Amino acid sequence: MSTHITNVATVECRRCRCPNYCVSGDGEQRARDSGVAQFRSAGAGASLELLIIRGPPGRRQMGRSRSSRSQPQRSSGMDGGGGGGSAALDDDDAYLDRVRLVDASDSIELSKVDRSLSLADSEDWNFSPRAASPTTFSWNRLLVFMGPGFLVSTSFVDPGNFDTDIQAGAQFRYELVYVLVGATALGLLLQNLAARLGVVTGMNLAEICAHEYPGRVRYILWAIAEVTIVASDIPEVVGTAFALRFLFGMPLWIGVIVTSLSVVLFLMVNVFGVRKLELLIGSLIGVVLICFVGELLMSTASLGGILGGLIPTFNLRAMYAATSLIGSVVMPHNIFLHSALVQTRSVRRTSPAIREACYYNFIESCIALSISLVINVSILAMSASEFFPNPHAGLLSAPALLQRILKGSAGSTIFAIALLASGQSSTMTGTYAGQFVMEGFLDLKIEKWARALLTRSVAIVPSLIAALVAGEHGADRLIILSQVALSVLLPFSLIPLFKVTSSHERMGEFANGRTVKVVVIALGAGVTLANLALVFAELVPVVGAMGGFTALLASCMGLVVFGGYLSLFAYLLVRPVTTHSLLDLKPA
């Protein structure tokens, strides 16, 4: 006679709220593999624990006598409760080592019932579950998980965002507010998927890609990830240089060189650990929020204009500005970063514990990105009210914008402080992202200060060239170009994230549902089509103006790059996710 486990239940301890998970579906096979499967259930009037310890058939020959295994008896707790279930087992089960019932010291309540636990060819283990209690919100639990979302949100309010917001408002007034809102919503969705990926699998996206794709593709994805990190660091370099110019009158090119000292600041902060870094960056974001919301309230921005900008419109002339807005908000390196940062919180490898972590991570991301949206809309609205129409407005124009609003030189100082704060916080998070990417893809560990110096050294080169050759306006233009590059390269992080989080083999019950799949596909397709339209709209006139052999050579190079882009895009879309499971949930 064999013991067959059909389904199990998920329960939660009422006293300490600790979750306990019972594997379902292939639970019997996984119980054999892991060696121990623990199942908890609640009887009428009493709480009992059914513990099943399993092992391979060979364990029957390890000297354990069958007479030493007694039939399980009901505990006094069950007797006193009027009876809620019974169990009759046969010792002939090849994989059954021991079954016992023990009176649980803590009161157990069912938080979710999948089905029942039955023992085939014997009496069923039945129970009368209490009503399922929903997950209750706790500020204390939120504080435990708070931090990673705010670290990630720094990239939503960095100098690149300031520049693109100012240019969008100055050129198209409130017309692109809906792009900001949509990009933030897409960013929230992707950050939620990234956080869930990290919590459920215990791996970040770079590690997943390293396991998922063959060597050549893995190195290409690593190179693209590094390019996105450098592209995201360029606005921090230029923005910090602008801040130093506003504060101390320092020439821009000297400010670019001085930004290399950010590595020293990072070293000083990193000594105190990631939690202190989260607190510091959260404080810096608070400074930025106070600065810009206060300035918005003192400006002549129109609430009606902002609300009207929520209605989508199509303007081909605004394509470049819209794409730069998307790139400044939805940054590829943030996906790698968030999937790794959530692992700084210890989460039990049980279904309810993982569900709780995902729940609070999502709430934190909502709070952090809502703050970033308020900041970005404030900057765009101020620019729209003060600069429109001005196609040349940018970071360089910001002090003049704030002086008009605040009627004095204080505006320039406030903006410079906000710019410096956002630039430094984004530099620190970019360093963490670079470290996670390098370790995940290449299994190459590098000190944080060395990683920060490497990224900053590469980002300084184009920034310094732009500052020396094209001056302040050239450096301003470089920021916008870097944001467009981030938007164009976004699919190579988005597709692996989407496919892995949609895989039931990888994610189990935490895989994406149909609604999430439809939304991600629709938004991803929209961003990709916008990127392609932008590339053609920007490059075709440039190539056409070259003429002769130069135009032919540029066209051939463009076709090769475009062909490679589409080939990798199609490969990532078509290639199925590997079928082996990385999801290893353990019973409590």
Automatic annotation (TrEMBL):
Compartment(s) of residence: Membrane
Bias type Low complexity, positions: 68-77
Stretch forming the signal peptide: none
Pfam families xref list: Nramp (PF01566)
Organism superkingdom: Eukaryota
Region annotation (Disordered) ranges: 55-87
InterPro entries tied to this protein: NRAMP_fam (IPR001046)
Gene Ontology annotations of biological process type: iron ion transmembrane transport
Membrane-related topology note: Multi-pass membrane protein
Single GO molecular function: cadmium ion transmembrane transporter activity
NCBIfam families: nramp, Nramp_1, PRK00701.1
PANTHER family: METAL TRANSPORTER NRAMP1, SOLUTE CARRIER PROTEIN FAMILY 11 MEMBER
Record's protein name: Uncharacterized protein
